[in-house]
Design goal:
By secondary structure, this protein is of the alpha/beta class. It contains 14 helices and 12 strands. Strands 2-4-1-5-6-7 form a 6-stranded mixed sheet, with helices on both faces. It has a 3-stranded mixed sheet with strand order 3-9-8, with helices on both faces. Strands 11-10-12 form a 3-stranded antiparallel sheet. The longest helix has about 30 residues. The radius of gyration is 23 Å and the shape is flat. The two termini are about 25 Å apart.
Length: about 375
């Protein structure tokens, strides 16, 4: 299981340039005019994880298979999108299908690149898109409430639950707040997710800065950081231009380039890590001579459900999980050493998988 992140923003903020860099392709047309991305470009990348390489080296695995992350480059949004302005309707439909939103904000000054509003103000840009998403949710909710009237009168339990949740969301939205601020009870969680409200999507602000500001950011990115903190969201600082240049280099050249720019790692790594934190995701591993593989699960996942990520039969027939913590696997120089040191544990159905666990599942067929 990976996850799908939609790259959104106003036109000409660097969305397509960032997408090209992240997916190491030129599939998205990066051009200095609005709506250069009309159909949502979709790209999959392997999630970089140095732990996987170390595990594979110890186990002498023939193949290394990282978990995958999907990026969706979505058409630029403008004011009035909730009413169909620009490519608004298409934008709103595409954004419903992603797990999280990477909101790219222009935090660079460049007179040669047109800004749709004629000025550089990332906080105002963020508010523009948030407002359009809230307006779209309000319109959607009002239509749904009208459609539920007959079922609610008939005592349909699901309709009654939907009406209650929609009214809760509407009240918050009308106060100018996104629906994600609502604390949903566990009993309502499934019904809530099925509403597919745009403003329930977690948001990661991506501050696109100039090349010389990639390490520390600038005044614009500082303001975005303050905005993110006030909302309980997160932000990362990236130079899309640098990321695009790095994507064309070999690994050794890329490392040298990053060193010269004063950067510890590529923006992709920071973006994925922030995305994992945003969606409360973590990784466990399966390791052997054939392959070393990473698997993504949500934090708090129990062993049988983690096994189910590999195959449904593993979950259905789950017996136990032979588990070694990552650090123990490394210190013991592999599975056999971990067994001899008493570091391999037999965990049952109630075990909560920890980030970095190396696991082998036993199950009935």
């Amino acid at each position: 299981m990976g996850f799908k992140m939609g790259i959104v923003g106003l036109p000409n903020v660097g969305k397509s340039t960032l997408f090209n860099a992240l997916t190491k392709t030129a599939a998205a047309q990066a051009a200095n005019f609005p709506f250069c991305t009309i159909e949502p470009n979709v790209g999959e990348v392997g999630v970089p994880d140095a732990r996987l390489d170390k595990l594979a080296e110890i186990a002498q695995s023939k193949q290394i298979i990282p978990t995958r992350m999907t990026f969706v480059d979505i058409a630029g949004l403008v004011k009035g999108a909730s009413k169909g302005e620009g490519l608004g309707n298409q934008f709103l439909a595409n954004i419903r299908e992603v797990d999280a939103i990477a909101h790219v904000l222009r935090c660079f000054e460049d007179g040669d690149v047109t800004h749709v509003e004629g000025r550089v103000d990332p906080v105002a840009d963020a508010e523009t898109i948030e407002t359009e998403l809230m307006l779209a949710d309000i319109e959607s909710i009002e239509k749904r409430l009208q459609g539920l009237v007959r079922k609610v009168r008939g005592g349909d339990k699901e309709a009654v639950q939907q009406e209650r949740l929609l009214n809760e969301a509407l009240a918050v939205l009308e106060e100018g707040k996104p629906a994600r601020v609502i604390d949903v009870d566990a009993d309502d969680a499934k019904a809530w997710s099925l509403l597919q409200l745009l403003t329930t999507k977690p948001v990661l602000y991506v501050c696109n800065v100039g090349e010389n500001e990639a390490a520390e950011g600038n005044a614009h990115s500082t303001k975005v950081g303050e905005l993110a903190a006030s909302q309980g969201n997160s932000h990362v600082i990236i130079s899309a231009q640098i990321e695009e240049e790095i994507s064309k280099l070999e690994d050794e050249e890329a490392e040298m380039f990053l060193d010269e720019m004063g950067l510890d790692e590529a923006g992709l790594d920071r973006l994925i890590r922030a995305g994992y934190e945003l969606l409360h995701l973590e990784t466990y591993f399966t390791v052997g001579p054939k392959e070393a593989r990473a698997w993504t699960i949500r934090t708090g996942t129990l062993a049988p459900q983690a096994a189910g990520v590999i195959h449904g039969d593993f979950e259905k027939g789950f017996i136990r999980a032979e588990t070694i913590a990552y650090d123990d696997y490394i210190e013991s120089n592999g599975e056999q050493g971990a067994k001899e040191a008493g570091k391999m544990r037999a965990e049952g159905k109630g075990y909560t998988v920890q980030d970095g666990d190396v696991m082998h599942f036993l199950f009935n067929t």
